[in-house]
Write a structure and sequence with these properties.
The protein has 225 residues and is an alpha+beta fold. It has two domains: 97 residues, Aspartate Aminotransferase, domain 2 (3-Layer(aba) Sandwich); 100 residues, Aspartate Aminotransferase, domain 1 (Alpha-Beta Complex). It is 39% helix and 15% strand. The chain has six helices and seven strands, in the order αβββαααββαββα. The strands form two sheets. Strands 4-5-7-6 form a four-stranded antiparallel beta sheet. It has a three-stranded mixed beta sheet with strand order 1-2-3. β6 and β7 form a beta hairpin. The longest helix is centred in the C-terminal third of the chain and has 23 residues. It is globular, with a radius of gyration of 20 Å.
């Protein structure tokens, strides 16, 4: 069981052939391949499911979160062969199929597929990567930038406390988070506009500029106490 792209693990993107080789290995040993797409599915990477970026289909896929546009829901998808092993009562889910959640899921799915959401995710994701990459080139303490679509991670070196940057960004109107103490994660709404992406990048750069200015004066800015 793997995430096609790790979310909480630091927005780690696999090599292009990793998932295909993993599926081959599972096939050799009779092991089911399960993809956790709770975070990276439902359009987050610019395709409906993140595994589509790699041309690999799992035996089982888990979904939640974005599946119903914010309404609590969970789902497990499976191939016909795997699903055939289930009988009534074998599997249950508290939020899996109540009428409200199911209706919300149908509406969200139609919007993602037919409402231009995937196209926007790819365009806004490209814009976000471009803006963050410019910032990365400017500051040597940014070690890496990685991700797909609208889930991107910016890894910092040990000289910078990511949590401090998150707090200061919040004060200035930008909500991001830091995972593993050193990776800033950017997961905006799939409907985010390029104008909003530019505004976000501007806020982040302002925070980093203040950080560097504080260093140059041997006096850390107040948000790095």
């Amino acid at each position: 069981m793997v995430e096609p792209i790790q979310g909480e693990g630091g927005v780690n993107v696999p090599a292009d052939d990793y998932l295909a080789k993993l599926k081959g290995l599972c096939g050799e040993h009779g092991v089911l391949l399960i993809f956790d797409e709770v975070q990276v599915g439902m359009g987050r990477t610019g395709t409906l499911f993140a595994c589509e970026n790699y041309g690999v289909a799992p035996d089982i896929m888990t979904l939640a979160k974005g599946l119903a546009g914010g309404v609590a829901i969970g789902a497990m998808l499976a191939t016909d062969e795997v699903a055939g092993a289930f009988t009534p009562g074998t599997h249950a889910s508290t939020f899996g199929g109540n009428p409200l959640a199911a209706s919300a899921g149908i509406a969200a799915l139609k919007t993602i597929i037919n409402g231009g959401v995937l196209q926007n995710c790819r365009a806004a994701g490209d814009r976000l990567y471009e803006r963050l990459d410019r910032i990365k080139e400017k500051y040597p303490f940014i070690k890496d930038l990685r991700g797909k679509g609208l889930i991107l991670g910016m890894e910092l070196d040990g000289a910078v406390n990511g949590a401090d940057i998150v707090k200061e960004c919040l004060k200035r109107g930008l909500l991001i988070n830091c995972i593993g103490d050193k990776t800033l994660r950017f997961i905006p709404a799939l409907t985010v506009s390029e104008k909003e992406v530019d505004e976000m990048a501007g806020i982040l750069e302002g925070v980093l500029e203040d950080l560097v200015d504080g260093w140059s004066n041997n006096n850390p800015p107040p948000f790095c106490e």
